[in-house]
Design goal:
- There is one protein chain.
- This protein is an all-alpha fold.
- Helices cover about 85% and strands about 0% of the residues.
- It is elongated, with a radius of gyration of 15 Å.
- It starts with a helix and ends with a helix.
Length: about 120
């Protein structure tokens, strides 16, 4: 079976989100924003995984589009945590780099699937 870079990167990102959630709760005693981050950040990979068994190209695009929305929401929470000093610039930028890579992959796959679906 061929490796799926998007699945791999989104899973690794979800692991980072879970660890960040634990850090925010245990060390920073932040429980509200971190819960939002946990939900959206782990949802990215869950929707990508679900898309693997899509019933059609349109279903595949729809599931990846949901994942993209969750990724953008996750970016918002990370930026908010940085601006409210729960995360340092370095901490936020480090995880944002991984997220932006997942977002770029999602956008690319969605666009190419739409083009191929129209043919």
């Amino acid at each position: 079976m061929k490796d799926n870079i998007l699945l791999d990167k989104s899973f690794s990102f979800a692991v980072r989100i879970v660890n960040l959630y634990k850090y925010l709760c245990e060390d920073k005693k932040e429980f509200v924003l971190s819960k939002q981050l946990l939900r959206s950040g782990t949802s990215v990979g869950a929707n990508i995984n679900e898309a693997q068994d899509a019933q059609s190209k349109n279903d595949f695009i729809s599931k990846l589009s949901i994942s993209l929305k969750e990724a953008r929401e996750t970016k918002y929470w990370i930026e908010l945590l940085r601006e409210t000093d729960y995360l340092t610039d370095k901490e936020a930028n480090n995880i944002l780099e991984d997220l932006i890579e997942v977002i770029r992959l999602l956008v690319s796959i969605i666009k190419s699937t739409k083009v191929n679906n129209e043919k």
